[in-house]
Amino acid sequence: DSEILAEIREIIREKSVELIHLQFVDIEGILKSITVTAEQIEDVIEGKQMFDGSSVKGFSPINKSDLYLMPDYSTFAVLPWTVEDGYSEARFLCSATNPDGTLFEGDTRNVLKKTVDRAAAQGYTISVGPELEFFLFKADENGNPTMELSDNGGYFEPSPKDLGEKVRLEIYRALKAMGFIIEASHHEVAEGQHEINFKYADALGAADLATTYKWVVKTIAQKFGLHATFMPKPVFGINGSGMHVNMSFFKDGENAFYDPTDELQLSNKAYQFIGGLIENVKNFTAVTNPLVNSYKRLVPGYEAPCYIAWSASNRSALIRIPAKKGMATRVELRCPDPSANPYLTFAVIASAGLDGIEKDLKAPAPINEDIFHMTDEYRTQLGIENLPGSLESAVAELENGEIGRKTLGEHVYNKYVTAKKAEWNNYRTAVHTWELVNYQSKF
Length: 443
Ligand code: GLN
Ligand code: MG
Ligand code: MG
Prior knowledge:
The protein is of the alpha+beta class. The chain has helices at 2-14, 41-45, 108-121, 164-177, 203-223, 268-288, 294-297, 342-358, 376-381, 391-400, 403-429, 433-439, and strands spanning 17-25, 31-37, 49-52, 66-78, 88-97, 125-139, 145-149, 182-187, 193-198, 201-202, 226-229, 243-251, 254-255, 307-308, 310-311, 319-320, 331-333, 385-386. Strands 6, 7, 8, 9, 10, 11, 12, 13, 15, 16 and 17 form an 11-stranded mixed β-sheet that branches. A 5-stranded mixed β-sheet has the order 2-1-5-4-3. The radius of gyration is 22 Å and the shape is globular.
């Protein structure tokens, strides 16, 4: 630690860092921030910054509201868009701690740490590569989002069709300056839709990267008069935005999912991991797909999954095995969307996979046909179940299963279920445009 701290102090001097943002996330993964001056760095690194946890969604009750922020030193970064001559700002991502220094159980970053520890106890480190898609909408003169998309480009379409190319370049530069290793960037299938891919990391690191990515994308888009959204299905009739999660377990420096002797080059552990996902996915969909709107993406025909099946190559399947093998062998879960809290999302996926390994759950037979075009009867015959069709049924499945309570812990689990039920109820009782269009004149 002393080495990395010396480096941080040096950067603060060198880049004239004046302000430091102490960031953390609430239960929905929404970024929160308290700003201190750089003079306070010594107190900050000791975790002495206090805050009121009772005003943060999903955090503590009013009578036990004093919490502290313990920065994760590895997340220190100067914010490239603040750098001027003789001035800059930096940030840390933090974990919330109790006054006695223990990790606060209501902080979802700490929830993921528990699953990381559970894997570590069995000798595994968890590698995660998330792929977050987003839409760019034009903002109006007040900076509010409109429904007008930034461009009408399509999959892999280059400029001049892709007005987003310039924005993506700036996002890329900012992410790179903050330490991201960017692998690719492209226009996605839908108009106004984009994706920038960064290199996988350990589970906690990857959740930190996903959180930072969403913030940077929104921040840079705004500088171009655009509004970036990670809402899963902003426009009816075209693709929504996913957050595919690629995951593998490493043991003793080796990829535990790789076995060159197997037909698909997958190890028994990989098959058990897939078995664990298939077994638990219905019960954790409320976490990986947290919004009312999430379920409008999980419908046939838009490259998003809605049936519970796996395949080596099939993009209509929920779980896919990307072609790259060896150290890159991994399982891709395609249901999560980028509105999900990445800490909770990676925790439930890893936890379900660990269950598969611990309980020796067998992966069912892979489905290599196009599942979207099967008849309902044929799907039933093959034993293919559906993902939950709404937030309401996803929350009911979360309550039916063990995986949520066990992985999230009592505190976060209870707050989560309560919040999601309230969200559904609010939606259920609201009158939507669709109802007016279809019913108002007819009845
Ligand atoms: N947008 C699709 C989804 O909702 C994914 C498309 C792709 O990356 N091939 O998951
Ligand atoms: Mg994509
Ligand atoms: Mg993918």
